[in-house]
Amino acid sequence: MNNQLAFVLNAHMPFVRHVEYDRFLEEDWLFEAMNECYLPILRMMNGLMNEGIKFQLTFSLSPTLCAMLTDKLLQERFVGYLNLHIELGNKEFERIKVSGDEKALRTLELYRSNLAMNLEDFENLYKRNILEGFKQLSELGYLELITTAATHAFLPAYESKPVAVNAQVETGVMSHAYNFASQPSGFWLPECGYYQGLEKYLKSSGINWMHLAAQSLILSDPYVKRGNYAPIQCRNGVYGFARDYSLTSLVWSNTTGYPCDKDYREFYRDIGYDLPLDYIRPYIHEPDVRVFTGFKYYAITGKTDQKILYDPDKAAAKVRLHAKNFVYNVRQKGLLLDSILDIDPVYTLSFDCELFGHWWYEGVSWLENVIRECSVADDMSLITPSNYLEQGYDAQVMEPSFSSWGEGGFSGVWIDNSTNAWIYRHTFEAIKNMEELAVRFSQQASLKQRLLNQAARETLLLMASDWPFMIHNRTAASFAQETLSSHIKNLNLVYNSMCKNAVNTEWLVKAEKRNNIFKYIDYNIFNPEHLS
Amino acid sequence: MVLLNIDALSTSELQYIASQENIDDWEELSREELIDSINELYDGMSEDPNKGTHRFLNCLSDVQYTKLMNLPGVEALPDEYLETSIHMIMKDPFWAYVFWSISPNAKSECIDRDSDYRIFIRTNAFDSAGKRIETYDINVGQGDRSWTVALPWMDTTYQMDMVAEYPKDKVFEVLASSEKISTPPAIDPTVIESIRGTAQASLIISSISTKTGEMMNNKVVSDLFSKLNSGSNREGA
Known about the structure:
The complex is a heterodimer of chains A (532) and B (237). Helix content of chain A is 49%, strand content 8%. Chain A has 532 residues and is an alpha/beta fold. Chain A folds into 2 domains: 3-404, 7-stranded beta/alpha barrel; 413-531, Families 57/38 glycoside transferase, middle domain (immunoglobulin/albumin-binding domain-like), CATH 1.20.1430. In chain A, strands 1, 2, 3, 4, 5, 6, 7, 8, 9 and 10 form a 10-stranded mixed beta sheet that branches. Chain A is globular. The relative contact order of chain A is 0.15. In chain B, α1 crosses α2. Chains A and B meet through α8, α11, α14, α17 and α18 of A and α1, α2, α3, β1 and β2 of B.
């Protein structure tokens, strides 16, 4: 029996580029992910490849993330971020040396070494473009790179706006072609949000498979014969891979998942919050806004304020143990399925990429250990969905069911009356106006074309799933609300300008500079005729 | 989506969140009291009592952020748009979020026709052949602009109408109709019966539960799980 593991990691960040400020708080989200996740994970994969270890993983790189990773301004700012944190690391060395605490010193060395290697890789290996690292591994056959909706829009909310859904899908595919010079086979449905019929837009954009929430197939009619252990095929030919709930819960659970282990590093105890302002001031935001610095010295320990110091050796041993435990659980599941399934199972293991290294500090090392375990096991292999399908496979033909991987399994997180549902009054109106503009002013040239293209960018940006998610969770809710509002206001301005047959050039120049995403966009994508 | 426990936060961080959330006397509260207050606050915001702990990370970052600078010429978002429309978005197979607006002109026309007019939302349900199978009305207030409306049947297409009733002439007028939305099909009970207690049921259950038997938080999945789990184990699976 061959247990086939399809890891699918979704790397996504909302568009948080703010050219108008020298340093913008929310840009740190991107830099933290680059520093703690994307660069370390690339280094890990390159290391395995150089050792001759074969593996196959799938990465979805969202168009908004790709746009920011290839943006010169943000690349420059990331170098500044790294240098600032290297400086803080040096200052920390002096501080901790005095205390003589060996564990803290060893933890600090991990951070300092990561920062130094990241700077080296970023500047010299990737020439500031991290996407190149993913592209190279993809070309060498280690990775399958896939795309997602243009701004990671939660598509079930826009079921009644087919033109906008199609624009999200088509622009997502265009972004992939622009960044990787290839057509993606797979599509990460943002938040695993699926509604019946969505696959037709994927099909028309050349997508062959999509990733689904765990319950999507189970709740379908007719019932799924092979559970989540084999892809299904929609009637239009697009394949669907459903997430394996039990195996991903070993990592994902916020109460029992591996990242909760007491020996792992505590995410929340950061010197940005713990040290005196006079010391930390140069490394946080003005005016004295405490933020995470990435320097964290404590272990999770337990439900206590009295955390013990993080012990890197202890954590490394736990990582190895958890990797073996994961493989053990896969094997056990395989044994259960062996007597039931008519084929070898494939387990779709999907995660937010930023879990590894950023949220779960030891996550990259855990993934490396799982890959190593798989490489020496004769009953286990890593596979990408496309490679799986290439083997030739007789799939059950059925329609998945409406679902997401959010709380409750449907759309409640993104459409919540008490927090975020109000946004749809505005986003629906904006989409309607954008479609009207595309019909009334089709095939414009010069300034008007630029104005309408910018309107199309703003329309896609306002549809991002991140804004309702943050408003729902009250996490950076005011930022999300303000950002969403600004995109709607921009779209409204274009609508009013075009209705008056005028172009506000000052606005246009500034808007193009600020929201400079999707350089290749053609606003005619919002013309309903384009869909038909 | 990583959900970490509030207990993991340091006391200073808890105080920070409490201050940002305007919790009274946060400086005087003990660690336990801070945790209770924050949990209470967040639980109150949640419709779902089973909801997991919130992610506090970005709360910490969401502080005196610089107000985003508007681009030149943009105008504030309107409270209402000058059109008469009604829209519906499915929240889950049982509930839809419905929102509507009435343009000032339409409102004037209603008043001109009958100042005692009232607005209600009419739910139309259609079967798979497009035949109307049920219609029922929901009274809404003049100031209401959105409701969460129950969708009683699965595998059914729904459309909402915004209707004005003019008592003087005893007539109704449909002011706007929403898009049509279909709820997903229910699982055939005979299929459930045929696989209950079999190896096939084990296969399905293993797809939606953790290794310790914990079920995902989803009403339809829970129903399916209990149906599959009831009855005897016919194949010893």
